[in-house]
UniProtKB/TrEMBL annotation:
First-tier enzyme category under EC: ligase
GO biological process: mitochondrial tryptophanyl-tRNA aminoacylation
MF (Gene Ontology): ATP binding; tryptophan-tRNA ligase activity
Catalytic activity: tRNA(Trp) + L-tryptophan + ATP = L-tryptophyl-tRNA(Trp) + AMP + diphosphate + H(+)
One cellular-component annotation, GO: mitochondrial matrix
Protein name, entry field: Tryptophan--tRNA ligase, mitochondrial
Length: 327
């Protein structure tokens, strides 16, 4: 049997929001105790598929590193590294792109969603899922925690493992999906959409470094409805239900427990309870991020050590790939 290896990546978008934390990062932290080999990559090569400001990107990479560490990623348990510093990702991506047909990529979500917003998307945006496949296969990963929105991209990685193995002999294990979480945190302003960093309304999203006052204000302004009782009914009462989801997740309660704690409260009082749960959970994380941000040398050294470990794993795999394809 194959050694179990986990790979996952996150774009350096700066400090994560509550949706990222509850939908992905919290799970990343708990996986550290379940798998012997885990790689978490800050995928900066993916970031440049859309126009970026270089100084901002550099700052975002360090902010993401600080955030991951503050959320509980332990560099002794997981290899935390910056994708662009392991050039094997780009090289394997090129080789895999030569095994990928153009129509195979056309319907994948990243391209469909993001190219629509621009008149023309870049070739890099189009082949983004091939780079994702390379990220995964480069480490012979067996398990990939992804959000539901990424399942189709993982299918491409599975296909490419199969195609490569078929053409050049068995090398890559088929990577399995580990659904991170089905928990979806919604926008506080429009609970029919998910909480997202690209939401232009700054009151819609809670950043994990928001101050207690900002958190209180955002939750106080969160859209609910005209019923004051707290119930969990995402279809008919998305706003209140979103608060229940957040409360339950932050206080580590089941949804039923969260609703029962709200018994007798109107939504105004409940919002204060939710605020308390969020503030309590995020305060140590925010403080740790602030501490780490002030210690750039430390952050850079953590990433450098992660890069060295990742490269050690990547080099022999790519060497074998090069040989198999005839270089
Ligand atoms: P964004 O939507 O802010 O651009 P990303 O697409 O970069 O976030 O997502 C990074 C990770 O966070 C993914 O695993 C994604 O599934 C998860 N995620 C993002 N937004 C949410 C949300 N609102 N609720 C739950 N998980 C989320
Ligand atoms: Na996104």
């Amino acid at each position: 049997s194959v050694e179990r290896r986990v790979f996952s990546g996150i774009q350096p978008t700066g400090v994560p929001h509550l949706g990222n934390y509850l939908g992905a990062l919290e799970n990343w932290v708990s996986l550290q105790h379940q798998y012997p080999l885990i790689l978490y990559s800050i995928v900066d090569l993916h970031s440049i598929t859309q126009p970026q400001d270089p100084e901002q990107l550099r700052a975002n990479i360090l902010d993401m590193a600080a955030s991951l560490l503050a959320c509980g990623i332990d560099p002794e348990k997981a290899i935390l590294f910056q994708q662009s510093q392991v050039s094997e990702h780009a090289e394997l991506s090129w080789i895999l792109s030569c095994l990928t047909s153009m129509p195979r990529l056309r319907h994948l979500p990243q391209w469909k969603m993001k190219s629509k917003q621009k008149s023309e998307g870049s070739v890099g945006l189009y082949t983004y899922p091939v780079l994702q496949a390379a990220d995964i296969l480069l480490y012979k990963s067996t398990h990939v925690p992804v959000g539901e929105d990424q399942v189709q991209h993982l299918e491409l990685a599975q296909d490419l493992a199969r195609i490569f193995n078929h053409r050049f002999g068995d090398l890559f294990p088929e990577p399995h999906t580990l659904l991170s979480s089905t928990r979806k945190v919604k926008s506080l302003r429009d609970p029919s959409t998910k909480m997202s960093k690209s939401d232009p309304h700054h009151m819609a999203t809670i950043s994990i470094t928001d101050s207690p006052d900002d958190i209180a204000l955002k939750i106080r302004r969160a859209v609910t409805d005209f019923t004051s009782e707290v119930t969990f009914d995402p279809d008919n009462r998305p706003g209140v239900s979103n608060l229940v989801t957040i409360h339950a997740a932050m206080a580590q309660l089941s949804v039923e427990e969260a609703v029962s704690q709200a018994k007798g409260m109107d939504t105004g009082a409940y919002k204060r309870l939710v605020t308390e749960a969020v503030v309590q959970r995020l305060t140590p994380i925010r403080e740790e991020i602030e501490r780490l941000r002030a210690d750039r040398t430390h952050l850079e050294s953590v990433l450098l050590q992660g890069t060295q470990k990742a490269r050690q794993l990547a080099t022999p795999v790519l060497k074998e790939v090069r040989h198999r394809v005839g270089f």
